[in-house]
Amino acid sequence: MLLNVDKLTLGFGTAEPLVQDADLALGEGQRLLICGATGSGKSTLAMALAGIIPQILPIPQYSGRVSLAGENVTALPHAALFSRLGYVAQSAEDQLWDLSVEDIIAFPLENRALPRAQIRERVRALMTQLQLTALAGRRVLTLSGGERRMVVLAAALASQPTLVVLDEPTTGLDPAARARLCDALVEAAAHVSGMIVTEQDASALAPVCSDLALLSGGKLAAPRALGPALDDAALWTGAGLLPPRRPTPARTPPATGPELLAVAGLRTRLTRADGAPVLENAELSLKAGEVLAVIGRNGAGKTTLMKSILGLAPAAAGRIVLGGTDATGWTIARRARHIAYVPQSMRQILFHMSVAEEIDFARSMGAGDEDTATVLARYGLAGHEETNPFALSARQQGQLGLACADASGAAIAIVDEPLLARDLHGRALLETFLSRMTGSGRAVMLISHDLDLVDDVATRLAIVADGHIQQDGPVPEGWHSPAFAALGWPLPRAHQRTAA
Amino acid sequence: MSRLADLNFFAKLGAAFALMILAWLAPDWRWGLPYAALIVAGLVLVRVPGLRGYLKGAGLLTLMVIVSWMINLTIQGLAPLDALGVAAKMAARLVATTALFYFVMETSSPGAILAACSAARLPPIVTLVLSLLFGIIPMLRDEFERIADAQRARGMEIDDVSFLRKLRFALARGVPLLVQAIRTAHAISFSLSLYGFDLGTKRSTWRRVGWWIEPAMSFREPHK
Predict the structure, then answer these.
(1) Which end of chain A is more exposed for a tag (fewer CB within 10 A), N or C?
(2) How far A104 CA sits from the closest chain B CA (Å)?
(3) Are β-strands A211-216 and A224-225 bridged in parallel, bridged antiparallel, or unpaired?
(4) Does B193 contact chain A (CB < 8 Å)?
(5) How far apart are CA A47 and CA A60, in angstroms?
(6) Domain A3-238 identical in fold to domain A259-338+411-499
(7) pLDDT reading at B1 higher than 60
(8) Nearest CA to CA, how far is A414 from chain B (Å)?
């Protein structure tokens, strides 16, 4: 066996361990997908399988045994272990600092003092194999999320490991980047003896992995064939996950109200490399009761559109109208009293010392009047009033973002890539937020790469491409528009089946 | 500017030290001030990134140094004009020193520093300290700006307010900045452990290092 796991128990000192008595046997050539809801212990298990727990990150409760080709990973020296095991963290940023692409890929080889010619040959081969040559010389912190993950994958493969462990590698990637990563994983799998991938979205990894093991309630189920499991809806809901092949929920046309936001003739001061504005003559409106999804390739101008509305990106021409009043000359802070912003990483916008203070601050910025405990309970944060926001998990910080946006009473919420909506519980929280907003005469702009999420919850779809809003209309029409076809992305899964 | 970024880190560091020593040897403000101005003008000329922010900081530093030295020397009985001369000399030294090292910091990426240290076969601990010392500050400065944008986007009026309020809001950025600094430190220490950084092993480098440090791998050249 390549990897053998025997009665592995992992915990952080709480009454119940996070993972209990997990058994697993991974054979040569096997590619295993481990799926579980947020907080089920996937990342902890992935780190234990890669030997990071306990070799780099000791935890209070670790028992059982993980063996790589018969050798206990806890007994192997660091250098020997991590040259045989490659690891890609859920957040690629956890493995990156401000180095260039080649520096990151070469780093493990340089640390082992390999000769320069040998390092160059390996880096060159990996960059060619994973199609990273166009990124040569770029600093990794300037790359997109997908590009960063490809670089980390290359670094994980640099030492020619026998086993590679990847923790949620497709999270937050646009469909094209996801497809490129999956192609790279298929290519990489040909050069390693085994691969373990954890994910919430099984269908994205179906071309890469052959077997599936579900992690739920601390128990790791025995592996089974992935293909047939994709159609078993009860299997996924039982593990707290959204079934990969679920139908689109029935749509009822939204009852829209007055226009809350209008973008007219917007041209940004920010330009592209060729000197063209990032956005040119952009027109958009948002009415009460709407959930407007904005999609587009990386660099198409989605973020710039959002920043222009918030006032963070200066406009060269055009108008932003909020609630019928021209807000073009308003300061960013004044606009924020009308627009609540929920970024992908909430960590960047938290600055108070307790959750209650964050809610109080949000309320003071807008027209909200609900008490803190009620808002927190709605978003699954009851009892966290005095918790430091930075002590919350990333998922809980996302919940706090929704709570703050709701509590502010702002007429519009801009939600940027809500990753918490990838499992059943998180999706329910997001739907609660959306129905609260739309049901109270407010509106939401949802920026996401997750086409299934967009298909499920949006009432309107806008596609940004080449600095323009190329498509704006009902969601089903959007999937069949020339603008969507030009993206070259696959349809949301429910529509793929309909088309088939 | 990009060519200066490729100059060997130790060449820049050595030059900065030499020029700094000259600044500290200036006999009085009549030499010190023009010399400091010349160095700052050099930064403007080569278009060092983020210069506006540096100049703001240098202005504040100059003001604080002059005021504190003036008070100190006047209390000790020196005539105000003489005290001003001494204070100006000290301020000129500090501006010259900070400007020189700002230049080194802004034009040296952590990767280029790692390569220079590895090629010089320095002990890994020295390599690490130099890379972090000169490489992390620009990262944290960018993070500081990102947090300010996030504060604005949540409704904090931090632009159109008095200096004192601005200062208070800047201090509020300290919490997320500290968290980010800890995360960065964690990411670095994690990647060092995962990728086999060993204090007992002198590193090698993929880059060709001489007076200039190779900035990127060329995929057109024949394999070497």
Answers:
(1) C
(2) 9
(3) antiparallel
(4) yes
(5) 14
(6) yes
(7) no
(8) 11
CA angle B16, B19, B20 (to 5 degrees): 80
In 10 A of CB A255, how many CB atoms? Answer: 12
The residues that bridge with A163 in the sheet, in sequence order, are: A85, A194
Interface of B with A in 6-65 (CB under 8 A): none
What's the CATH number for A259-338+411-499? 3.40.50.300
Distance between B87 CA and the closest CA of chain A, angstroms: 38
Q: Where are the domains of chain A?
A: 3-238, 259-338+411-499
* B157 interface with A at CB cutoff 8 Å: yes
What's the pLDDT tens digit per position in A156-200? Answer: 999 999 999 999 998 888 888 888 889 989 988 888 999 999 998
Reported as a single tens digit per residue, the pLDDT across A49-91 is: 999 999 999 999 999 999 999 999 999 998 889 999 999 998 8
CA-CA distance, A150 to A88, in Å (whole number)?
10
Q: Which residues of B touch A115 (CB under 8 A)?
A: 204
Structural tokens at position A396: 């809980």
Interchain CB contact of B151 with A (< 8 Å): yes
A333 to B157: CB separation less than 8 angstroms, yes or no = yes
A385 inside 8 A of chain B by CB: no
Partner-chain contact B195 A82, CB within 8 Å: yes
CB-based contacts of B178-181 (< 8 A; 24+ apart in sequence): B179/A347, B179/A390, B180/A347, B180/B140, B180/B143, B180/B147, B181/B136, B181/B140, B181/B143
Tokens of A227: 């293909």
CATH topology of domain A3-238: Rossmann fold (3.40.50)
Pair A300, A313: CB distance under 8 Å = no
**Contact yes or no for A449/A463 (Cβ under 8 A):** no
Q: Which parts of chain A sit beneath pLDDT 70?
A: 497-500
Pull the structure tokens for residue A160: 């020619």
Encoded tokens for B168? 């208070």
- The tokens describing B102, both together, are 């700002």
A78, A90, A98, best to mutate vs chain B, most B CBs in 10 Å: A98
Domains in chain B: boundaries: 2-106, 110-194
E strand intervals along A360-491: 412-416, 443-447, 460-465, 468-473
Output the CA–CA distances (angstroms, integers) from residue A136 to A140, A171, B118, B184, B205, in the order listed.
10, 24, 20, 23, 16
Whole-structure pTM value = 0.86
| Chain A / chain B CB contacts < 8 angstroms | 187
